[in-house]
Amino acid sequence: xxxxxxxxxxxxxxxxxxxxxxxxxxxxxxxxxxxxxxxxxxxxxxxxxxxxxxxxxxxxxxxxxxxxxxxxxxxxxxxxxxxxxxx
Length: 87
Fold this sequence. Notes:
Elements: E1 7-12, E2 20-24, H1 31-34, E3 51-55, E4 61-64, H2 66-86
Antiparallel strand pairs: 1-2, 3-4
C-alpha cells in the first residue's frame, strides 16, 4: 500500500494523550490530500475522507476514507503488538 509509505514516522501527539500520531510529508501528497479533499492513501475524493490518519508537520490533520483508515488502524495495532512483545 503506497499510502503507508508516505508517512515520515511516529511523532508525539500535541494532545494530552500518549497516543502516537503519524506525521506525513506534505511533499509526497497531492494538493487535494493536503487540503483534506482526498484520502491520503488511495486518493478517493468521494465520499470526502473524514477519518484522521495523522498530521502534517504544521499540525494540520491528514484524513482518509473509512476503508484505508481501517487498514492503518490494523497496521498500527500489529506494530504495537510487536513492540510490546519485543520489549
